[in-house]
Amino acid sequence: MTAQHKPWRVTTAAPAQAPVAVIGAGVMGAGIAQVAAQAGHPVQLMDVREGAAQAAIDKIGQALAALVTKGRMADEERTAVMARLHPAASVAELADAALVVEVIIEQLAPKRALLKELDELLPADALIASNTSSISITALANGMTTPQRLVGMHFFNPVPLMKLVEVVWGAETDPAAAEAIEVLARRWNKTPVHAKSTPGFIVNRIARPYYAESLQVLQEQGATPAVLDRALRGAGFRMGPCELMDLIGHDTNALVTQSVFEANFGDKRFQPSLVQRALVDGGRLGRKVGKGFYDGVPETAAPVAVPDTAAPLVTLSGQGPMVDRLAGWLTHRGLTVATMPEADWQGLWVDGLALHLTDGRCAAELAHQRRQPALAVMDWPLAPDRAEGLAVAFGPKVTEAQQATVRHLFQHLGWELLVLRDIPGLVVARTIAMLINEAADAVWQGVCDAPAADTAMKLGVNYPAGPFEWLAQLGAAPVVQLLEGLFTSYRSERYRVSPLLKHRLWAD
Length: 508
Ligand SMILES: NC(=O)c1ccc[n+]([C@@H]2O[C@H](COP(=O)([O-])OP(=O)(O)OC[C@H]3O[C@@H](n4cnc5c(N)ncnc54)[C@H](O)[C@@H]3O)[C@@H](O)[C@H]2O)c1
Description:
The protein is α/β, with parallel strands linked by helices. The protein has three domains: about 10-195, Rossmann fold, CATH 3.40.50.720; about 205-290, N-(1-d-carboxylethyl)-l-norvaline Dehydrogenase, domain 2 (Orthogonal Bundle), CATH 1.10.1040; about 315-420, Transcription Regulator spoIIAA. Helix content is about 45%, strand content about 15%. α17 (about 430-445) crosses α19 and α20 crosses α21 (about 500-505). The longest helix has 18 residues, at about 50-70. It binds nicotinamide-adenine-dinucleotide (NAD). Nicotinamide-adenine-dinucleotide (NAD) binds next to α2 and α5.
């Protein structure tokens, strides 16, 4: 790769002297034009659909006027921002731009043709960015005379609100060009993270298991969508996977899944789900059509009423960060707990029932292996101080009375008991372990570094913590054990453990 030593005009000139052009005046293009104009750049907006650019500028005007009404923007600023926005009728009119952001339809051929045209038109100190969410920057640059100046600048929807920008490097991207886009993103009040151009970049890749694991549980009839959503909200996620897929739209979500799967040559890790296919085929596309997993917005569960009877006796078994967290939750609720730190399993001992923290084995399997009929498994306690709901699966020989004891304990703790079919890894544990595993592979393969993965997941999809932050809290051992458990249960390469996690485990 030849480094470009000439400085890029978009970051060396003052914003007022660094014109920006945005091609594609759809949802994303309009948002990017707004953000650039708010940062002080004169902005040209162009679209092949006649009148689309002006219509988008008018819409930005309405959005800014609403901000003025709410007192969040001064009227003079709105006037100044609007004066910087201009529609353009053709690509030729954009020849003075210091940066052109391509935001057109998500298809390789038209994007490539446009980028080639821009490369021929623009002076050597102008940068070109693409907001593609799934096409390789390396592939887009193929055909340009100066592919070094093409950088992925992946914004998130809605652009004015979402802080994250993935700065995506194609194989030919000049490091100085990527750095200039990073500097620019910061000036535009965004948080940039660097990513190598690989399928899904950072967010759309690492987020796949958040949907895929719940879809797998649904396929196995392990739980209902409402139970899955309550379990993951209980772990601190703002929305559960099923309600989130309803919001995104199953067609859109299925397309991203399919694209990442195909781009990885059919790697089972990214295999799409028959459950989602059935929703798409049946037109249950989610909230936009009023039906998906839910026929509307899901109801939130009523808070659990704490009974005035005495709480059951609880003994904490084993040691480790998750046992410590359970201890914190129990004492926070005023329960007296005994401990048996030397035990060879982690979890709670409640009135003769062993409630194991899941390690990826089913309750039936553990009960059989340990010759312990009164055995159940519980999900990972991830939320720092409380859980709205926590999943449990009972072994086949657990009695009604023992189940009632567990329910009673959960009521005392204010948790909703979410009883699942006895599937390996329950809900939170398998989802979190797979998110960590995917992030670990992304870092192992040089797509991004660990802090970038954490930032991207917290800002791009609002996760309560980053995958490496979870890994630091839990340690590598339970994550690897959980994944090995799933791998053994399913005999599927989908659950293969990332080399990075193995190395973390060996180093611990
Ligand atoms: N919608 C999202 O949530 C999202 C998020 C991140 C990235 N993206 C990416 O942003 C890009 C645009 O997505 P969108 O959701 O804004 O789409 P959109 O359909 O709302 O807008 C695309 C616009 O591009 C115009 N267009 C198509 N071909 C053109 C051409 N050759 N020259 C000029 N204009 C042309 C269309 O007329 C349309 O107005 C895609 O690459 C998409 O993958 C979308």
